[in-house]
Amino acid sequence: MGVRDLVYRNLLYKVYERRLEHKIAKAAAPIPRHVGVIVDGNRRWARMMGLEDVNRGHQKGADKISELLVWCREAGVEYVTLWLLSTDNLSRDKAELEPLLQVIEGLVGNLVEQGWHVTPMGSLDLLPDHTARVLKDAKEVTSHRPGLIVNVAVGYGGRREIADAVRSLLQEHASKGASIEDLVEVLDVEHIAEHLYTRGLPDPDLVIRTSGEQRLSGFLLWQSAHSEFYFCEAYWPDFRRVDFLRALRSYGARHRRYGS
């Protein structure tokens, strides 16, 4: 594609962006308070671009996140949960995992410097000490900041989260001297929800996944029971504001039916 064609295409996208913004505003459709994002396709993007080092794809994907957060803030979104690394990913070869963790550490550092309120979620005890410390420090330094809350899911797995929640619940009741029988008498879904990584936050209204895959892969299993889903064909590094606005338009056009 020549420079002239590229300029023309970018101009068309800008026009289309404005049209989408106008339609969303005119419809006065609800904006999701909480958006979950599965940032998928970094490695495939790198291969598609002919890059031998897939970590350049991870870095490109990390750079995209700051853009997304600005779009979310401008739209009125209050919470964003980003799935950056699953518990399954931790079993990758060391030569691949270590550079990825470095990219994540750099991303978290940038989010802190940019002024975001950053909250880590996941099994931090499974992470290398340095990565876990970067995440914990980010939470401590930014906990007082107002505005959009950014949950970074690192070393996260939905099944493990539920298991951790049940374990935490049992430990809490045991510390009070309660028996299993006592817990069984009162246990309900809210008790478990209070021990999830996202405790205190609203469940995600909208979950976006890039790269064309149409599955959750364990992301926010408990919390997404009533979420709306939007699957985008673009690999994460190629995710554009147009794609984000399409997701908002799709969400706003749906009639949410809880429990059916």
From TrEMBL:
Domain of life: Bacteria
Enzyme class label: transferase
Recorded GO MF terms: ditrans,polycis-polyprenyl diphosphate synthase [(2E,6E)-farnesyl diphosphate specific] activity; magnesium ion binding; Z-farnesyl diphosphate synthase activity
EC numbers, comma separated: 2.5.1.-
Binding positions for substrate per the UniProt entry: G41, N42, R43, R44, W45, H58, S86, T87, D88, R92, R209, R215, L216, S217
Gene Ontology CC entries for this record: plasma membrane
One of the GO BP terms on file: polyprenol biosynthetic process
Pfam family, one: Prenyltransf
Keywords: Magnesium, Metal-binding, Transferase
Annotated positions binding Mg(2+): D40, E228
Cofactor: Mg(2+)
Record bears the keyword Magnesium: yes
Residues annotated as catalytic: D40, N89 (proton acceptor)
Co-factor remark: Binds 2 magnesium ions per subunit.
Annotated family: Belongs to the UPP synthase family. Z-FPP synthase subfamily.
Subunit (UniProt): Homodimer.
Purpose: Catalyzes the condensation of isopentenyl diphosphate (IPP) with allylic pyrophosphates generating different type of terpenoids.
Name of protein: Isoprenyl transferase
UniProt organism field: Acrocarpospora macrocephala
Taxonomy of the source species: Bacteria, Bacillati, Actinomycetota, Actinomycetes, Streptosporangiales
